[in-house]
Predict the structure.
Amino acid sequence: MELWIMAAPYNVAAHRYVNRMAKATGRPCRTFPTVASLTQRLRRPVSGTPLLVLFPAGRRELENLLAARHLMRDLRIILVLDDASPECLSAGHRLRPRYIAYSDGDLSDLVAVTGRMISLPAGMFRISENRASA
Amino acid sequence: MAKVLIIDDDTSVRHMMAEVVKRLGHTPLEASSAAEGLRAAAGLEPDVVMLDVHLPDGDGLEIAGQIKHAPASPEVIIITAFGDPDGAELAIRNGAWDYLVKPSPVERIMITISRALQYRMAKSSARTPTVLRRDEIIGHSQALDTVLERVALAARSEANVLITGETGTGKELVARAIHANSSRSGHRFVVVDCAALPENLVESTLFGHVRGAFTGAEKPREGLIRQANGGTLFLDEVGELPVAAQKAFLRVIQERRFRPVSGKEEIRVNFRLIAATNRDLEQAVAKGRFRNDLLFRLRSLSIATPALRERKEDIRPLTTYYVNHLCEIYASEIKGISSEFMEVLEIYDWPGNVRELFHCLEEALAMAEAEPTLYPHHLPVHIRAAVTRTTISAQVPPASGTRPRLLEDLNRMDRNNFLSIHAFREMMERQYLERLTLLTGGNRKEACRISGLSRTRLFELLKKYDLSNIMRKTKDRRCSPPVRDRAAS
């Protein structure tokens, strides 16, 4: 399964994530630097069902993505927020993501969930620590 | 006073039932055949229908669905002289209120009728006219109408809902429709994709965590349960939830409070729970993979989304909707749809359901490029091949001298046209059923006895090969003299 990532070129978290996923999958990820470039691509037929990983920069870009939600058809979405405010979370859930991660974390959860969604062998993305209550 | 329609060809049974109905203070109506019963159900608007299975001109189980969809939507009680567990199950699955085996004690019949009427009264008093927001739920088949009725019911209540159905049947759309039509629609709809979460991430994702709960937890984080406060929490693929997390989640459902990972204080929450799965959770319980108490809690109200092959009349509106939607996305002229294209879509079985239909149309539009109309050759090859095979199998003429002799034909086939074992098996099965129908004169009981098939399986196979009408006509031809005799007398 292909990975399509939308993130601004200066987004450090996205850059780290792209590198880790490219290493894990053995092929470069398809990246879109802006919402406009992503929507332009979505206005053409999509073969297969790529997984969309979106790193919107702030509330405004999130709203732009929401306006383009109808173009994302039934593609599965992972949303990476840089702002966990209630407003951003509400807007984020309206985008219908399968998972929400936060760019201020270590991204290990994001890598693990992506790995599972694109069916990578578990060893490539295992989280070393159990994040459950004892 | 309610109206109870009794459909039975046995006069003494009808009279006995009519007496029971009168004793209950209601009005009995009578019909002695399936045709007469259908007319009465449509015109006399009964509240309850007592329906015999073995009628001279049809099978009660087959007309039960039509009766249910009569203008008054009566409750149907199946009544028959023959104990038949498969038939009973089929009747209940088709929406019958209850199933009585003749002879049943009068008290049992009275209780069943009374309960059906009580249920009907409660249902109509609870029913308020609702304009349902359907969003992308497209179609007008009976199967879909049943789902929408359940959606409306769920939207009016706060009960936990379990949505079951094959992959691609729109379980999430149904969950969103419940939320959108409920009093919680102004709040969040939060999705938990249980299949996407690695086991050691489940609890922190659901419950959140405090700062320092584990390596990398530099900030406290709200879990999805907290984010759903006031709104709806949708557990998708709930059958994938690890057993340990099931236990923790059960407590949240029961007590509506939870503790974040490594947190000291409990947090109260108020959310509505909807879960969905394509797995058989009963079986998962039997294998110890799913907690019975959690299943019990989840399915206070259950909704089964039908496979697309069970609502083929919706393929046309779905196709029109998706083609227009995709043309709009691509900013291209709206394409025409040829009748041949639609026919192929209607023949194909759609194992991937509506999702597969959508992707197939997307592929067809890509293939068509600038051509103004969609034709079958724009469809993916695997779909055209499957439809061709089905069509050829179905063209085997019934009971004629030109019937292909399968084994001989097989010997004549070479590598290029040799049949798959699936196609061969289907051709054999179809010919067997045609011969069986002729041999038994359309008598299903006899057909079950000879073939060793259960009644349910025989129904399924006749439906699969579109032979139900042939079975009925054969039976009609066989039954016509006695009917004339009765009319003459």
Notes: The radius of gyration of chain A is 14 Å. Chain A is about 40% helix and 15% strand. The CA atoms of residues 108 and 128 of chain A lie 9 Å apart. The helical segments of chain A are 12-25, 35-42, 58-67, 86-94, 108-117.
